[in-house]
């Protein structure tokens, strides 16, 4: 019998440390427990909310639902050939620990995604990405329980509808409970070094996946606060992609504009926009503000409420729109 509790604090389970309470709460450690959890929720007319590492969420002060914390564990090599391996990894596994473990096995492909907080199951929801690599580049398929149809489904990469920081699982939030996913990794290292500080590694002789992993970890530790020390949700806003006409207008006005060419458009650095709006190191109600080392990171050092987090987010969006005429889109999901 599953152990479903009532009125459980979610503060330890979200990286912004918002003092939220779940009306009902259960940890999913075995897939066989799903029918009992669903039956419990249906009998009480409760919605189900799936919680992974809580690193990309802004929680309501109270969540009137049955919150299912996914703690499913397991890693397995399910196929391989001369060049690649296929891993199946359970959704409750820690993402960064998976990246480190895979590199230790001699398999590359995830090194650019080191030190991204959260669980394996959360990775495809957000289509996590960093330094020119996204989880979509390595993902083969996702096994997920469809809470609407009440059956297990295997979705291919294409069926996941991946976009920049988006996927089927995010757009159809609370429909799928991800149980595991399969990843294709490589036995021969082929580095992706086109982004920023990683370009310096191009001249390194005998470059290994471990070197890229170490560099990414060092960069992220220098730019991003440890959420255990300073509560945060990582990058809080998406980098906006604009047309050539908008880009030219902004570059004339701001010659030092930071950007990357993406197809026929231009991806602007949201952190630079926020910094230019004089919000880096600034704070609002409840002590919520923009991190002094990276304006893109919203921090909550005083463990303030969700309303304070939302108020600061709104202020950042308003200032950027006033200065640049751009609408910043929030990365985290909001539980209301």
Features:
globular; 4-stranded mixed β-sheet; Uridine Diphospho-n-acetylenolpyruvylglucosamine Reductase, domain 1; 8 helices; alpha+beta
Describe the structure concisely.
The chain is of the alpha+beta class. Helices cover about 25% and strands about 25% of the residues. It folds into 3 domains: about 5-70, Uridine Diphospho-n-acetylenolpyruvylglucosamine Reductase, domain 2 (2-Layer Sandwich); about 75-225, Uridine Diphospho-n-acetylenolpyruvylglucosamine Reductase, domain 3 (2-Layer Sandwich); about 230-335, UDP-N-acetylenolpyruvoylglucosamine reductase, C-terminal domain (Uridine Diphospho-n-acetylenolpyruvylglucosamine Reductase, domain 1, Alpha-Beta Complex), CATH 3.90.78.
SSE layout:
Layout: E1 5-9, E2 21-28, H1 34-43, E3 48-51, E4 57-58, E5 62-70, E6 75-80, E7 84-90, H2 95-104, H3 122-126, E8 129-130, E9 133-134, E10 139-146, E11 151-156, H4 168-171, E12 176-186, H5 209-223, E13 232-235, E14 241-242, H6 244-253, E15 259-262, E16 265-268, H7 270-276, E17 289-290, E18 297-299, H8 306-324, E19 333-334
Parallel strand pairs: 2-5, 3-5, 4-19
Antiparallel strand pairs: 1-2, 6-7, 7-12, 8-9, 10-11, 10-12, 13-18, 14-16, 15-16, 17-18
């Amino acid at each position: 019998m599953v152990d479903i509790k009532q009125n459980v604090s979610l503060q330890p389970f979200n990286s912004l440390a918002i003092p939220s309470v779940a009306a009902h709460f259960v940890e999913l450690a075995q897939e066989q427990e799903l029918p009992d959890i669903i039956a419990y929720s249906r009998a009480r007319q409760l919605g189900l909310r799936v919680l992974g590492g809580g690193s990309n969420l802004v929680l309501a002060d109270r969540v009137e639902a049955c919150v299912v914390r996914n703690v499913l564990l397991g890693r397995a090599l399910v196929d391989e050939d001369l060049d690649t391996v296929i891993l199946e990894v359970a959704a409750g596994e820690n993402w960064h620990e998976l990246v480190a473990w895979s590199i230790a096995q001699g398999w590359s492909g995830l090194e650019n995604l080191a030190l991204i907080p959260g669980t394996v199951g959360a990775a495809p929801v957000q289509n996590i990405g960093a330094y020119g690599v996204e989880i979509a580049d390595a993902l083969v398929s996702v096994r997920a329980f469809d809470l609407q149809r009440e059956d297990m489904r295997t979705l291919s990469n294409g069926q996941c509808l991946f976009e920049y920081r988006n996927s089927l699982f995010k757009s159809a939030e609370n429909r799928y409970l991800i149980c595991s996913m399969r990843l294709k990794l490589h036995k021969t290292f082929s580095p992706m070094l086109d982004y920023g500080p990683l370009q310096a590694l191009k001249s390194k002789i005998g470059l290994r996946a471990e070197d890229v992993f170490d560099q990414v970890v060092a960069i992220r530790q220098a730019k991003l606060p440890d959420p255990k020390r300073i509560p945060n949700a990582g990058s809080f806003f998406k980098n906006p992609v604009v047309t050539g006409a908008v880009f030219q207008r902004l570059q004339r006005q701001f010659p030092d504009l930071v950007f990357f060419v993406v197809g026929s458009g231009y991806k602007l650095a949201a952190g630079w926009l926020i910094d230019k709006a004089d919000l880096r190191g600034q704070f609002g109600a409840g002590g919520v503000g923009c991190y002094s080392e990276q304006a893109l990171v919203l921090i909550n050092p005083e463990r303030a409420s969700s309303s304070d987090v939302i108020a600061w987010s709104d202020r950042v969006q308003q200032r950027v729109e006033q200065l640049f005429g751009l609408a910043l889109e929030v990365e985290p999901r909001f539980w209301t």
